Design the sequence.
């Protein structure tokens, strides 16, 4: 049984993780933007064994709303054993190239909002001196590719921030996990033409995340073979990389 | 969007493009979009129907699997409301710790609730509890261009009856209320005994079925002469004492489809002979987890791939009580002579509990099911001969397993087809329905 805070709780990967914790009889504080989807998700988790599930509506980019959210969360859960930051979007790269405001908005959705949340939650965890802070970054953050470098840049910021935080909080007994999923079959990736052999199911990814949190992993590629793929991609020298269309 | 969906038998091999809808409240718009774009469609669950009943005539299916949530649970009375794409495995995982079990379960737990209703599936306790449809309290039904409906025995009773066993043609089932069955332990106490021929099967069934919740038999489909229909009889009951434990999911997997079938005459004969001899001649009592008892094949994920690229067909028929023994002897004789068949040929006596469904498959009598690697001769030689025996005995084939039956056989065996056709949502059409109706 765990006390779990999830930001972006209605996303496919977050839901799949929550189901595994629900089966252990965990308590949840779920944060998401849409009240109806939150309600559907909460009912499902209750059906699957969750004890107390509290829903909280919040836009993840609304930084001013964070303190109130955290206050409600602590009132509901007492302490946070696991915080999972899972919200995000998949920006239209070409649209972002034409529209600065859209680019900045998408950077906020996937980058600065995550950093802001990590900043606030880190202090709570530092006080607790226990618990796991897990954040979903992406393999896309490891190289800037022409097809989605705005998303990649935001995720690179998250990964680097998370790495630094990991080193800071490790000393006080708090676990920080950076999760780097590859291609996952979710509503976010619907409509993309992704290679079927590389496409993972959310349940499969969730199992690895929940295991990684239980075993205090530092960085988690999921599925695991992405560690190898990314090692190869990181090894491509710049003069060659810039000629590719990845 | 998945573009490579198939039926479980991977025959016919027409790949389906799947259109998934992640949220139940967006389903109506989603259906409209798909139907408007492609003319017609068909709900597709987890692809556990064997033949072409889960394939859309447009090859564009509404992929329901993503709608897999609990909506409401009442563990005091064992009543749950779930979205239609939830699998039976997911229900069991949540219900068992609360002391509840599915009142009827087919031989795989990876079927969806929507699929279980649309095919009105049955299981090893048909003689006691009838079909899955007997335990469905109500469900939501979306028909193209019509307001959402709730169907039950008292609300839209005609659509309720037509949708149970309605092969997904009456509308899209978006959620269902199910009545579960209480258990005090998840383990099964079973008794196994082998029998030497078909006559012994019937006497065992008459002696044991009414004493047990579950009853099923495996037959050696290659045994000939006096040994025709030899096999292993298995009865079981939920343990009275034990624990409430959910089965772990399996990691065994057939990772790819081999170019040819691994089931051939040699492997088949060796397996069947060994399997029969491995079972004791006197009754043997055992306690097992529910999973190996109900779902022995679920342990090997993608087991359908062992039949190779050509896929396979399952032949499942039910023969009315009076004619059952003679017709089954004939069927098994023809099959044994052909030397084809499967590791697991299953005999099951069905009971008299009437289903609310219009086109429900079981009838009081005995059902035989077995798999055949796909081969041109099947449709032109073996199956027509089996069909003739079934027809003469007044039996019928199971649409959920079928990829070959003739339109006239279907319409003869399921006279209510006209009522279903009249209630069919015109925007839904399967390859099966097109084959047997038009």
Sequence:
């Amino acid at each position: 049984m765990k006390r779990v805070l999830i930001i972006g709780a209605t996303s496919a990967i977050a839901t799949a993780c929550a189901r595994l914790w629900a089966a252990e009889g965990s308590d949840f504080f779920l944060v998401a933007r849409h009240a109806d989807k939150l309600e559907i998700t909460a009912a499902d988790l209750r059906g699957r064994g969750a004890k107390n599930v509290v829903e909280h509506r919040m836009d993840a980019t609304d930084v001013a709303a964070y303190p109130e959210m955290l206050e409600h969360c602590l009132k509901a859960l007492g302490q946070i054993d696991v915080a999972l930051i899972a919200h995000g979007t998949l920006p239209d790269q070409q649209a972002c190239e034409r529209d600065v405001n859209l680019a900045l908005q998408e950077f906020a959705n996937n980058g600065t909002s995550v950093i802001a949340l990590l900043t606030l939650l880190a202090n709570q965890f530092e006080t607790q001196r226990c618990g796991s802070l897990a954040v979903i970054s992406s393999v896309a953050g490891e190289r800037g590719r022409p097809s989605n470098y705005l998303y990649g840049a935001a995720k690179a910021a998250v990964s680097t921030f998370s790495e630094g935080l990991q080193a800071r909080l490790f000393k006080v007994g708090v676990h920080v996990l950076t999760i780097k999923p590859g291609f996952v079959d979710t509503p976010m990736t619907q409509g993309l033409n992704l290679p079927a052999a590389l496409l993972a199911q959310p349940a499969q990814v969730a199992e690895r995340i929940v295991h990684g949190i239980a075993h205090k992993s530092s960085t988690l590629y999921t599925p695991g073979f992405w560690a190898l793929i990314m090692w190869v991609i990181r090894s491509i020298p710049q003069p060659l990389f810039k000629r590719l269309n990845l | 969007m998945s573009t490579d969906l198939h039926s479980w038998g991977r025959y016919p091999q027409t790949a389906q493009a799947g259109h998934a809808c992640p949220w139940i409240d967006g389903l109506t718009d989603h259906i409209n979009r798909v139907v408007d774009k492609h003319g017609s469609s068909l709900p597709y669950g987890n692809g556990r129907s064997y033949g072409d009943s889960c394939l859309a005539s447009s090859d564009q299916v509404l992929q329901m699997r993503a709608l897999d949530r609990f909506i409401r649970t009442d563990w005091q009375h064992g009543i749950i409301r779930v979205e239609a794409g939830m699998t039976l495995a997911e229900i069991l995982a949540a219900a068992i710790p609360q002391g509840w079990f599915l009142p009827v379960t087919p031989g795989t737990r990876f079927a969806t609730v929507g699929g279980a209703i649309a095919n009105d599936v049955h299981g090893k306790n048909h003689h006691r509890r009838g079909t899955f449809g007997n335990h469905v309290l109500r469900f939501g039904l979306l028909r193209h261009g019509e307001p959402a409906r709730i169907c039950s025995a008292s609300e839209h009773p005609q659509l309720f009856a037509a949708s149970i066993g309605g092969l997904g043609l009456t509308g899209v089932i978006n959620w269902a209320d199910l009545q579960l069955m209480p258990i005090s332990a998840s383990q099964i106490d079973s008794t196994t005994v082998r029998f030497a021929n078909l006559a012994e099967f019937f006497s065992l069934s008459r002696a044991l079925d009414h004493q047990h919740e579950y009853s099923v038999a495996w037959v050696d489909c290659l045994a000939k002469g006096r040994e025709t229909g030899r096999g292993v009889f298995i009865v079981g009951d939920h343990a009275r004492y034990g624990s409430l434990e959910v089965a772990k999911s399996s990691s065994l997997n057939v990772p790819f489809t081999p170019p040819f079938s691994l089931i051939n005459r040699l492997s088949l004969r060796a397996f069947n002979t060994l399997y029969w001899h491995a079972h004791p001649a006197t009754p043997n009592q055992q306690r097992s987890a529910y999973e190996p008892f109900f779902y022995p094949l679920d342990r090997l994920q993608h087991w359908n791939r062992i039949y190779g690229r050509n896929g396979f067909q399952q032949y499942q028929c039910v023969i009315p009580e009076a004619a059952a023994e003679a017709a089954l002897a004939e069927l098994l004789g023809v099959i044994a002579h052909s030397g084809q068949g499967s590791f697991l040929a299953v005999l099951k006596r069905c009971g008299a509990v009437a289903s609310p469904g219009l086109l429900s498959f079981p009838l009081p009598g005995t059902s035989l099911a077995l798999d055949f690697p796909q081969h041109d001769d099947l449709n032109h030689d073996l199956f027509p001969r089996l069909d003739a025996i079934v027809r003469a005995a007044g039996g019928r084939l199971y649409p959920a397993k079928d990829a070959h039956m003739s339109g006239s056989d279907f319409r003869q065996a399921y006279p209510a087809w006209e009522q279903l056709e009249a209630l069919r949502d015109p925007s839904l059409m399967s390859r099966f329905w097109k084959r047997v109706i038009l």
